[in-house]
Write a structure and sequence with these properties.
single chain; five-stranded mixed β-sheet; 16 helices; 16 strands; disordered N terminus; binds histidyl-adenosine monophosphate
């Protein structure tokens, strides 16, 4: 019989590695490491600053909602509800879903907090995680981030144009070139009439339709227009276009949106087959695509549109609304592809270095005094050797290093080292902050004068 022996030996190296690697990321999710965080914060700051100027207030809804909110709001027959929701029943028997998108939850919050009583429109911006159980591939994750704008309480075409313009502006300011694909899917009545015509048309092509398209023909014929299947594309291109079935109010609204966008110089392309995959839309729908045809990006950076019926569907009073959401990971991937880097958001001027236990203690205090005096400062206080600390100071491109050693502690001084020329001066520790400020201001002045001189030279 096989006899089990318990070994008291240390586990072999491979065993340790094996144990460590058995804890891996869940499929389709990502750690956002410091390198990517720099992109995230850069985009976040831009969104926040622009939203503030345009009067959009921040909102954050919970990561989970009642499942029914999305079933009713996004639509029973959408891909999101049919197959992509992370849904579960909690210990109390509630049916919950990790939010796959932000709009339905914001409409819920608008109703729940009685925001109809506020001056309209009520405008929000948001930033957060969304979760969809999709098949992971390039640009498609199971946990991703979106920023978005939602405006509730106005049917003015200016709102549609403003939302598109703001999104365009943010992406353009990041250094990317994008085009807006746009369409109008009119009102419910326009679509009912159009769907009949569309179904009649696709029925004449039935033998050429895929199984999926045949199913969509019964359930939601508009979705066929969104198909990526190569052999369907020529059939779709010949299909009747919704624009011809818009009633006069929807047509007028759409022409106004287009007119405003033209005024704002936003590059838009009319795409008659654009219908979007969420059921709450009516009238304007749009998507943001990179203008670079060579880009490997196969999916939209963002999308949105008008959703005048959503608040009512969720139990509120009729409230016209419009919004957009942009995928942050897709934006970051495109920025990387284009080799566009976020600007350095912290460039320290001073490095505090120390030698010896007493000096280390004093340095911790000095560091905090410098920081509180609004001086951009860096440290590596856990390092012991002066050489390695100065190497770090060098890497950070600081202007000065303040060095504190045993002798300086006894004398009540510090050593100030100019990192460019290596010259060191002894300075009274009580005078170091005003001295640093004086020197940094002087350097700033010299820099400003140089910029001015260069400008003058260039204009001559
Ligand atoms: P959406 O088109 O489903 O619209 O998503 C907007 C953007 O989120 C997409 O263009 C994409 O950049 C990003 N995104 C979506 N799914 C994924 C994924 N699996 N992985 C990575 N990125 C993804 C909405 O969510 C609507 N709520 C937009 C809206 C706001 N309409 C009106 N207001």
């Amino acid at each position: 019989m096989f006899k089990r022996t318990i070994s008291k030996k240390e586990p072999a190296k491979e065993e340790i590695t094996k144990t460590a690697s058995s804890f891996q990321l869940v499929r389709g999710v990502k750690d956002i490491l410091p390198e990517d965080q720099a992109y995230f914060f850069w985009i976040f700051d831009k969104v926040r600053s622009l939203a503030r100027s345009y009067g959009y207030d921040p909102i954050e809804t919970p990561i989970m909602e009642k499942t029914n909110l999305f079933v009713r709001g996004v639509g029973k027959q959408t891909d999101i509800v049919e197959k992509e929701m992370f849904s579960f029943v909690d210990q109390g028997g509630d049916h919950l879903t990790l939010r796959p998108e932000g709009t339905a939850a914001i409409a819920r919050a608008y109703i729940e907090h009685g925001m109809l009583a506020l001056p309209q429109p009520v405008k929000f911006w948001y930033w957060g995680k969304m979760l969809r159980h999709e098949r992971p591939q390039a640009g498609r994750l199971r946990e991703f981030h979106q920023f978005g704008f939602e405006s509730l309480g106005s049917d003015d075409a200016m709102i549609d144009a403003q939302i598109i313009f703001m999104t365009y502006k943010i992406i353009q300011e990041l250094g990317l070139e994008v085009t807006i694909a746009i369409n109008s899917i009119g009102s419910e009545e326009c679509r009912t009439q159009y769907k009949k015509v569309l179904v009649d048309y696709f029925r004449t092509k039935r033998s050429e339709l895929s199984d999926l398209a045949k199913k969509q023909l019964i359930k939601n014929p508009l979705r066929i227009l969104d198909s990526k299947e190569e052999n369907l594309l020529p059939i779709i291109a010949q299909a009747p276009q919704i624009f011809d079935y818009l009633n006069s109010a929807s047509r007028e609204h759409f022409l106004k949106v287009m007119d405003y966008l033209d005024e704002l110089d936003v590059p838009v392309v009319l795409k008659p087959t654009l219908v979007r995959g969420l059921d709450y839309y009516n009238r304007t729908v749009f998507e943001i695509w990179t203008s670079d045809e060579e880009s490997s990006r196969q999916s939209a950076l963002g999308g949105g549109g008008r959703y005048d019926g959503l608040v009512e569907i969720l139990g509120g009073r009729p409230t016209p609304a419009a919004g957009v959401a942009v995928g942050i990971e897709r934006l970051v991937a495109l920025l990387k592809e284009k080799e566009i880097k976020p600007p350095l958001d912290y460039q320290p001027d001073i490095f505090v270095a120390q030698l010896g236990e007493e000096a280390k203690r004093k340095s911790m205090l000095l560091f905090e005094q410098l920081r509180a005096a609004d001086i951009k400062v860096a440290e590596s206080l856990s390092k012991e050797g002066l050489k390695s600390q100065l190497e770090k100071a060098d890497k950070l491109h600081v202007k000065y290093a303040i060095i504190l050693g045993q002798k300086e502690i006894l004398d009540g001084t510090v050593m100030l080292r100019d990192m460019e020329n290596g010259i060191q001066e002894v300075i009274d520790i009580n005078k170091i902050i005003p001295e640093i400020k004086k020197r940094l201001e002087k350097q700033l002045k010299i820099k400003a004068e140089q910029v001015q001189e260069n400008k003058e030279v260039n204009t001559i």
